[in-house]
Task: structure prediction
Amino acid sequence: MTQESQHVPSAGSGTGSGVADTAGSAPRQAPEPELSGVRNFRDVGGLPAADGTRVRDGVLFRSGHLAGATAEDAVFLSSLGLHTVFDFRNAADIKLDGPDIELPGVRHVNIPLNDPADGAEFWKLVRHGDLDQLRSILADGRAADRMTESYRKTVAERTAEHSRVVHAVAGGDVPVLLHCAAGKDRAGVTTAVILLALGVGHDAIEEDYLKSNEAHRRYRVRRGEGAGGGRSAEVMELLSPLFDARSAYLRAAFETIEDTWGGTERYLSDGLGIAPATRERLRERLLVV
Result:
């Protein structure tokens, strides 16, 4: 899909989204940056987890792709001390938006969470189709249904990929940035998986997920030249379910865990193959009192 962000001010090199804590220290929050060329960036630090702990600031970040990062954005991202960037885009996404910028000393790992051929014709119609075509594929709840199903499939079919990410983070690949194209769906589900392993509750995960709807984070569709209906009110209404972060989508992912594995614990142990010792290492790296 093709998207464009609303313009927001670039962060200066001295801006941060959070300051990493030492165990037992009081939380120290710095203003969240608004980057010019990186969409939907945020620090996931501060969310309440198990046993009175919270997610440590400055170790777990999420965003949209880094292909459009400005020089100032790159300075800020470099200041985070990132160990690894996980890019969940597929080859078609990367061809469309471009590869991520290179951050010196940062490992970049591409783990596609969907097949480039999956829905290729659908997204072609989204970008270039006329109003009648869009009505045929998106109207009457079909767009929302498609998104809901994509969240279910990401949980049910991408256990190996999610296991790889969790094991890497538990093994020390932090601070880490997780991103896809918009930073909403594939990055959103993967962030949720890590947070579940940390003992963060569904409500807190959903609250973070829904931040992708805030005005300075939202994406707008860039329709192709000559696309019927352009960006008319009806076209944008038809497309909105595809670019919204909706509670129903994330809850479908949680329901898939319940329906398939009977709960979070078996999903983590049986579905992802995460041993208790791995979860403990993950918590040691990402949680603080």
